[in-house]
Structure formats: structure tokens, C-alpha cells
Amino acid sequence: MSKITTELLLERAVPRSTRLRKIETLNLSKLQLKTGDLDPRLFSRLRHLQKLDLSDNLLDKFPNSLTLPDLRVLNCNNNKLEDVTALKQFPLLEELTYENNVYLTLNDDYKVIFLLQNLRLLNGKDITKLANQVRRVNSRKLTSKVTAHWEKFFRDQLPEKHTAEQVKSIKKKFLESVQTNVVYGPSSLSEFTRWRVKMIAEEFLSYSLGLELNTDPEPEEKMDENEDESAESPREAAEDVAQHAFQVTVTPGKRKRKHSKPRSRKKRSKSQANTKEEAAEDVSAEPLHFLQCHSKGNSREDFKTQLWSCVFEPLLDCGARKDPIVSSSRTVATCGGESVCLIDCETGTVLKKYKVATEEFFSVAWTTLTMVISDSRKKSHNILAAAGRRGIVKLIHVAADFCYGEIKAHKKPIATVCFSPTQETHLFTASYDKRIALWDIGIPDCDYNFKASQLLVLETLSIPLRLALVPPCPDQYLLAGCEDGCFAWDIKLDKEQKNRPFEAMFQFPDEDGAMTSSHRVDGLAFLNDDVVVSKSSKPGCIYLWSWSRSFDAKAKGCQRTVSAVMLAELEWSKTDLSYLTLSTCPAKAYVFCGDENGSVWMYNLSNYTTAWSSAKGKRSDKRIPPTQILQWPELRANGEQLSEVLVNNVVSDPTFTYLVVLTSVNVTAIWKKS
User: Fold this and answer.
1) Quick count: other Cβ atoms within 10 Å of Cβ 417?
2) What is the pLDDT of residue 537?
3) Per-residue 3-state assignment (H helix, E strand, C coil) for 364-382
4) What positions does the domain Leucine-rich repeat and WD repeat-containing protein 1 LRR occupy (predicted)?
5) C-beta neighbour count of 540 within 10 angstroms
6) Strands, E, within 529-653: which ranges?
7) pLDDT recorded at residue 244
8) Does the pLDDT at position 393 exceed 90?
9) Where are the beta strands (DSSP E) in 272-413?
């Protein structure tokens, strides 16, 4: 039975009414309504309805025949809308809001501006000037390009006396060609442009040439590139951070060695911090900065935003850097909440900040693209990919302070992303939809036009949490730690099969010593070309195992489920909390993992790797203790001590000069190796 009845409509009318045809204002917000609940037969009786509030429901689209001929104001905030084209049935609409519909982008804004000729306000903003550009200038330019494309490539292909089959064939070829080759404006609006080009081309064929116009509704084509929906530009955000992101200065306790003087950050915060640390002569890293730069709305009171991912920026040219002493990048990208930040680890300066008010970022990854600049010369630029709850990948050209595009990768959140180390445009996205997708993000031209395409879809049995490409063969195999196990896929692109099941599922010891494949793997990384480090649901333990020997066992036994060939176990916290992930520094043979008390466990395994690499490498019988545990200092902000600090992630730069710690209390801690 539908949730909407005549009685409900009369009751929710403003003011209440006794006749449906007398209702002018109707509030249907917060009723958990789905698209099927909007009955066209019932709504057709609302002949004089002018204002309709459908906010805070579960609508994913509008029925095509609601028949509200007098509707002027519509509120669809906080729904799950994926398409806006059905709104053309309300031609008198003047005010429209649909904020917090995560699948709608700037392309959809342009569509409704074109379709609704009377629209004046969109999401509370006056669109009068933009509407003229979209409805007239844009249409005129595209019509000219479509006509020119026909004249140049297709006019002579249609014989004077043509059959229906010839008309059908030429029409199909023309529509495909014109949508591919006619471009206008930035690539971030390519979905809208292609939509308009198709519409103009069909009208051209129908009215100019007398060819039949296809009026059958077709499913909206889902594009990969969409417009940046940042609440503020990276440059504006960076300026804002200078005023509102604070740094907690750590005052060390008794130490027997010399310390660098803490840098003053008076402009950043009024808060003070005190620390009490146990004296330790062998401390190999010292706290440098504690930053609060991911606050929601730049609030200094935000100690709840979770920070999830950080990656050091790759160096483009060491010789070109102003500081010749720096042999490794000291710039790190961090993400959490609604923002992505770029931080100089040495100075603690937040260099840039990128925000999307409706997003929660879970993962970031770097790649270096060789782009053609304005004078046709080629130059390398670092590109940052950021993704999270909305299932959309943002592509940011950091040096230009510009998010030049996005990819609608999944309809559910993206847990993690990573780039191929050998194919600069190949990006893996792992989603809550239980799929891992491989994308070619393309290379943007000097106008930032680019084209992304999906190359592979890897099917998983549960949500993938961590990804690791196998170092000796990153174009051949991918490992993933998932909610219910650890799996490997063949990712070679020389096969025709685009959707692929896993090649192998690995088993690990459970708490009783028996081998099991059913466990959450929330930490996964390679220590070197063969040694895999993984953390699973077994408390107090991190595993080290051999990729080659484990996978060889799979090949010999011709079976998909294989036991991981264990090399050692690392002693770790006894907590049963999940998603406290690990990382490695292969150049220094280090493993890092945070815990539930804000501490960082560090393991120097350089004395073990040689023995493990031998063909008869023997497993270490005893658990390997941490080389050192960096204790979380006693931090005070606004007079109160920060407590219950979880370390969600900890990452070092390639040379282990800096260690970046991301926490559950919106604090980024930066340590420097002594």
C-alpha cells in the first residue's frame, strides 16, 4: 500500500485543506518516500499546487507523469536523486533546490537550467546570467558545430533516393560520431555537452533533413567526467587554513639529547598543549607538529572528524627544488571528513586545502602525468586522486590549484584507491559495492579536457578494504584485503574477459592455530618484492608471509584456496578494534602500525629479510617485538586533554625522514626521525 493517501495530502497541506484541487502548498518532507510512492493518478488531482516540499526522503528519480501544471517551487534536498531530466514536466518551475543528492553534479545543474526555461533560483542562487549562457550561447555554438560535422563528414553519405534502412544506418553513425567528436567548454561539463549534442543532432536530422526523430525515452548515459563541486577553491581554502587550522606545540619532558626548538604558530590557535613523556635515550623520532586542519566548517572545536589516508607526493625533479638537501618529498596529502590537505612536514604549513561539503574522503593517491602545456611542450605534473563516501573520484592538478574533473566510479562508497606504478593513468578503485574497478583516467590536454574509461571489474565476495599491487609484476596481479579474507586477481589486460573473479583466496592461522580464510584483513602492504605484511582479526598479531611461495602452491595444487606461507608474526596490540591499518617503508625494511591508544608500533626488520628471501627461508618461531613504540603525548586543546585517540593510519616518506600519523580525533601528528 502506498504511503501517500488522499487523507495524508489533505493533512500535510499548508494550511490544511478539505479538497485536493484547493491545495497550493504541500509539505511531504521526512516521510521516507520512495519513487514508487508518488502515484501520478493521485498527484494529477493537485491541479493548483504551486509549492511542493519533498526534502529528506529516499527518492532516486521522478515519475514522468506527475501532472502538476502550476508548480512553481520544488524542494528535493536530501534525497538520492540520480537524474533530473524528468523535471521538464514542470515547465512553470521558478525555484528548485536539490542539495545533498550525492549523485547529482554540475552537469545536472546545466540540464535543469536548459530544460526549465522559467527557472530563476537553483539551490538558492540566482541563475539568470548563467541561464542565458546555457540556453542561448551554448546552444548556438553546439548547433553550429553539429551542423558543420554533418556537412563535412555525412552529407555525401546519404543518397538522394534512400531507403529506410539507409536512413537508420546513417542516423546511428552520425549520432555516435557527433557525440564523440563535438566538444565545447571544459571536460568537466562533458556529460552535459554530450547530452545536448545528442538532442541537437536529433532535432537537426528531424527538422532540417526530414529524418525521423527518435522520441523514445532512453536511459541516461552515465559519464565519467563531472564538475568539481568544491565548496571553496583550493587557493581560498589554503588562505582560510592559515587562520583557522591550529598546531599543537609539544613540550618534551626530560631527555638526554638535544631538541630542535618548536616553531611558533601563534596565528593558528589560542589552544595550548602540554606533554608528559617518559624519558627514553633511544627514541629514534621526535614529535614535530600536531595539526587540526580537517575540521568541518573550519571549526576549532571539531575533535570528531576521522582522518583516514595519507600519501607523500612523488618528486618530479630533485635538482630543481629550492632546497637541495631534500632528497625525498616532504609534502604529504591527507584526507578525512570533507577535506583533502597538502602539508609541508618540515614546517607544518598547510599548503593547500580542497573541500567538498557533501563528501567524506576515505582515500588519496598520487600519480605523475606527462601533460602537453600551452606551447605544445610536454611537462610532468603530479595529479592527486581523492575518493570517499559518494563513490566519486576527484582529480586534482595540485600545482594549478584546480580540480579538473571527476569520475563517477561507483554508486557506493570507495574504501581505497591506488595508482599503478608502471601505467601512470591506471587507477584502481575499491568500493563498498564489492567491486574493484580499474580505470584509465586519461591525460588532460592544456584545456583540461580528458576522457576516462573503465578497463576491468574485479568481483569480490565482501567489501575490499586495502589494495596492494605485486611489486615484481604490478601489471599482472593485485592483492586485496577484504572484510572476509585476502584475495588475488589476474589483472593482465591481454585477456578479453572484463569482469573477473578472484584467482586465489589465502588462508591464515586463527586464534586456535587452525587455518581459515574467513577473517577481516584491514591492513595490507608489501615489505619488499616478496614479503607481504597483513593484519587481520586475530588480536595482537601482524602476519608476514611469502607471496611467491603462497601463489606457487596455488598453481601446483590447481586450487583457488591456498594457505599463506608464513614467515613471521609481529607482536602488536591486543585490541579487537578494526580498521587501524599498517604501512611499510621498503627502502628501510620498516613496518608501522598504530593502535587504540594513539601509539605507533615500529618494526625494523632489516635483520630478517635476507633469511626470508632464501628458497628455504625458515619461519621465525617467536613473535617479533616492536623495535620501538612511539607513545602518544598528553595533548591539551582548549584546556581539555584529548583522550581515546585511535591511530587510523601511519605512513612514512620513502626515506623514513618523516612519519605522519592520522587519528580519530581530527589531529594529524608529524614525527621526524632523529
Assistant:
1) 25
2) 65
3) EEEEEEEEECCCCCEEEEE
4) 7-200
5) 14
6) 531-536, 541-546, 561-563, 565-571, 582-585, 590-594, 600-604, 628-630, 636-637, 640-641, 647-652
7) 40
8) yes
9) 285-292, 307-312, 331-336, 339-344, 349-355, 361-372, 378-388, 392-397, 402-408
The pLDDT confidence band at residue 617, using thresholds 50, 70 and 90, is low
Distance CA 251, CA 261 (A): 10
Residue 432 gets which letter from DSSP?
T
* Cβ 524 vs Cβ 486: under 8 Å: yes
Judge whether 288 and 672 are in contact, CB under 8 Å: yes
What's the pTM?
0.62
pLDDT of amino acid 240 = 44
The CB density around residue 148, as the number of other CB atoms within 10 Å, is 11
Q: Are 92 and 70 in contact (CB under 8 A)?
A: yes
Task: Identify the H or E element spanning 225.
Answer: none
Residue of higher predicted confidence among 359 and 163? 359
In order of start, what are the domains of the chain with their CATH numbers?
Answer: 6-155+165-209 (3.80.10.10), 286-314+329-673 (2.130.10.10)
Q: Are strands 339-344 and 349-355 parallel, antiparallel or unpaired?
A: antiparallel
Mean per-residue pLDDT, 429-446: 94
Q: How far is CA 518 from CA 53, 55, 433, 436, in A?
A: 47, 41, 19, 19
Q: Which long-range contacts (CB under 8 A, 24 or more apart) does 260-269 make?
A: 260/286, 263/289, 263/347, 263/348, 265/348, 267/242, 267/243, 268/242, 268/243, 268/244, 269/300
The whole-number pLDDT of residue 256 equals 31
Cell of 444: 588532460
Q: What is the mean pLDDT of residues 434-446?
A: 93
**Is 193 in contact with 201 (CB distance < 8 Å)?**
no
| Cα separations in angstroms, 42 against 2, 7, 14, 45 | 11, 11, 18, 6
| pLDDT tens per residue across span 372-382 | 766 677 888 99
What distance in Å separates the CA atoms of residue 586 and residue 611, rounded to the nearest whole number?
Answer: 16
Angle, helix 190-203 to helix 106-115, in steps of 10 degrees: 30
pLDDT per residue as tens digits for the range 86-142: 999 998 999 999 999 888 888 999 999 999 999 999 999 999 888 888 888 888 889
Question: Number of helices and strands (H, E) in the chain?
Answer: 10, 40
Percent of the chain, pLDDT > 70?
A: 84
Q: At what angle do helices 190-203 and 138-153 cross, to 10 degrees?
A: 60
- The mean pLDDT of 30-34, rounded to a whole number, is 92
Residue 146: phi and psi, rounded to 5, are -65, -45
The number of CA neighbours under 13 Å toward the Cβ of 638 is 8
Helix 164-181 to helix 138-153 angle (10° resolution) is 130
3-state SS class at 334: strand
| CA nearest to 201, candidates 139, 159, 135 | 139
- Give tens-digit pLDDT for 239-264: 444 334 344 444 443 333 333 333 33
Q: Which residues contact 581 (CB under 8 A, 6 or more apart)?
A: 466, 522, 523, 535, 593, 648, 649
Radius of gyration of the chain from Cα atoms?
29
Residue (of 41, 619, 25, 662) closest to 362 by Cα position: 662
pLDDT at position 207, please?
A: 61
Task: Report the interhelical angle of 190-203 vs 164-181 (nearest 10°).
Answer: 150
Higher pLDDT, 44 or 384: 384
Q: Which residues are within 8 A (CB) of 19 and not within 5 positions of it... i.e. 6 or more apart?
A: 10
